[in-house]
Amino acid sequence: MTATNLADRGVDLGRHPGSVDDFASSVGTWLRENLTGEFASLVGRGGPGSEHEFFHRRLDWDRHLARAGWTCLGWPTEHGGRNATLAQRIAFHTEYARADAPARVNHLGEELLGPTLIAFGTDAQKERFLPPIADVSELWAQGYSEPGAGSDLANVSTTARLEDGRWVINGQKIWTSLAHVAQWVFVLCRVERGSTRHHGLGFLLVPLDQRGITVRPIQQLTGTSEFNEVFFDDAVTDADLIVGAPGDGWKVAMGLLEFERGVSTLGQQVGFARELDRLIDLAKATGAASDPDIRRRLVSAHVGLQVMRAHALRTLATVDTGGAGGQASVSKLLWANWHRELGELAMAISGAPALIAPDHTSEGVVNDITTPERVELGPWQRLFLFTRADTIYGGSNEIQRTIIAERVLGLPREARP
């Protein structure tokens, strides 16, 4: 990943050239014309805490996007992408969020694994896996966290050994996003016996539909199940399905995390802005806006959103992947704490009625994937409960602050066993 100044490419993030404006206009027009008919019911669906909503219809939507050429925008054209500029990719995510288009189901493949394979994978791996990611015919899950490691990613204990031309995998992953609906999972595990920390790791591509893998959905506070436990009991994958050399797993895993905190964060912030706008409308409707403390918290939320955007633009202007090391950690701290506080503010504005689940069922087929029985919550209740996890998943606040302390401020490293 090399630092690149966008000005050298003629890209001004504050005042886009006409070509970027035209691109954004075409995205907005296409979304307005296509979020109709069978897809009209998907507007605003599938967000945080609502991943169960219309899953299969959202999968059809993702495939519809792919057929129209709106997936894998930043990928090189030879791999099925559009080789879009950074400014164009930002424009797409921004317009997508403004349209309140449905949450994507192919994010892990398109935005994380695909770019990782392009950067680190073999030609055979690219030929095998990139096309079904681009056309959304195969979905991916992420096998990073473990019960005994949490956000300490280098402390993984899942192992893999080469045996008769295959990797044999044993161990357990937890908080494995979307494993219950995916066909494949990328797994960070130990491939060198006796290795510790970030040494001796491998990054394996593993099929989920096999006897040696058990997937157990985890019921969240929202009653839904985006995350899973995944057990590997002599699970197998081919010897050539390791990305990078054995022992290079940490480098590949860190490369993937760089992609995770890329341009899609700006689209996320547009979504946050829409949530804040709706919350302001709710405060006005309920009379909560007359409370000085509520007004102060709404203003603080608005200011926090502007700080997030300024930080993201500054980071994107200097680093291709959206910021590395300390910059990425600052970004995670900013948005995770902001969103959690927004959930708390939503409860304060909603008042006592927010403590009771609505006595209604949603129109149409909402839950079209298997999940445990649950109580249907209102949107603000789901937001509040789901954002309890924002400061934990994707690297907890404590881990992010440690990264900033050690890598940015140069403070002494924390003692580790």
UniProtKB/TrEMBL annotation:
Cofactor: FAD
Record carries keyword Repressor: no
Acyl-CoA oxidase/dehydrogenase middle domain: residues covered: 141-234
Organism of derivation: Williamsia herbipolensis
Keyword Flavoprotein: yes
Family from the record: Belongs to the acyl-CoA dehydrogenase family.
Cellular component GO terms held in the UniProt record: plasma membrane
Pfam families: Acyl-CoA_dh_1 (PF00441), Acyl-CoA_dh_M (PF02770), Acyl-CoA_dh_N (PF02771)
Occurrences of domain Acyl-CoA dehydrogenase/oxidase N-terminal (ranges): 57-135
InterPro entries the UniProt entry points to: Acyl-CoA_Oxase/DH_mid-dom (IPR006091), Acyl-CoA_Oxase/DH_mid-dom_sf (IPR046373), AcylCo_DH-like_C (IPR036250), AcylCo_DH/oxidase_C (IPR009075), AcylCoA_DH/ox_N (IPR013786), AcylCoA_DH/ox_N_sf (IPR037069), AcylCoA_DH/oxidase_NM_dom_sf (IPR009100), Mycobact_Acyl-CoA_DH (IPR052161)
Keywords: FAD, Flavoprotein, Oxidoreductase
SUPFAM superfamilies: Acyl-CoA dehydrogenase C-terminal domain-like, Acyl-CoA dehydrogenase NM domain-like
GO MF term set: flavin adenine dinucleotide binding; oxidoreductase activity, acting on the CH-CH group of donors
Listed name of the protein: Acyl-CoA dehydrogenase family protein
Location of the Acyl-CoA dehydrogenase/oxidase C-terminal domain: 247-409
